[in-house]
Amino acid sequence: MTRDYAIYASNVAKEVLAIDSPTGYTKEAAEWAKSAFEALGFGAAITAKGGVLVDLGGGNETDALLLEAHLDTLGAMVAEIKSNGRLRVTNLGGLRAENCEAENVRIRTRSGKVLDGTFQLCNASVHVNGKYGDTKRTFDTLEVVIDEDVNSSEDTRALGIEVGDIVCPDPRTRITESGYIKSRFLDDKLSVGILLGFAKYLRDCNKTPSRKVYAHITVYEEVGHGGAASVPDGVTEAISVDMGCVGDGLTCTERQVSICAKDSGGPYSYEVVGKLIEAAKKEGADYAVDVYPHYGSDVEATLSAGNDIRHGLIGAGVYASHGYERSHIDGVWNTLKVLKGYLKV
Questions:
Q1: Is 221 a catalytic residue?
Q2: Which of 39, 179, 193, 280 is packed most tightly, with the most Cβ within 10 A?
Q3: pLDDT the model gives residue 258
């Protein structure tokens, strides 16, 4: 597999990163993903829950493999329209207030109107607020300042904004000349790109796996139940393709593929982890095996829903998770190599 497929995967990830999809608000991004897989010649369908189930072909349908990556991201929801016309929000998933300050946002109303705003500390001017540096950043001490002439809750409601509307931080996606990929929400739209890159490889090279392979582009992963449904008959193994952790105490870098042996939900299948390591070695992938201290994946939701499967987790290394994240095209390439080796195509 050439590096061109990693470049392709990174570029299509950039496309979907531009589509707002906080958990619970994923319809447009799911339709994009369905169309992207169909354009490569694979059958895809939107599930009742809102995810995308893709048939990647293959032989043995009684020993099928399910690849899972999630399309939903962190975000926020309007919880209160304040008397000054600004917005108090509640987070969707693990969005951190400390990481949101001064971030531009889009406010998406139920009528389809989109308005601009910014996360700011309440009383955000350093020249005015003597306690600026001492204030703990929470979603009660931050507010969304709307880029419209509003001074009251009535003014804001007149724009069409109501409680329950969606607040989407700007992903600020950039791919550098040196191959680094910087953006919010690489977790896990980078992996959606990886699965599209793998699908393109199968099509371009006319490869048919010896076992049946499905891809499930899930939604609601960020709140814990993304992979809890839509497992096709015959699936005996499921692998989450999600971000690999990078940080103190771990060995993975952004340029590697991470193979997870254990996370907060417990150990992954010893058999599957072993086969993933063998695949990495066979394909010459630069890999690391790590234990993630604070992590949960789609495939654990698949198991918790009662499915009798073996499970694993891989992903390109991502630094600064749940913040302004960074990975590298080489990490994408190494992840694709492991998928190729695991499926022997």
A1: yes
A2: 193
A3: 98
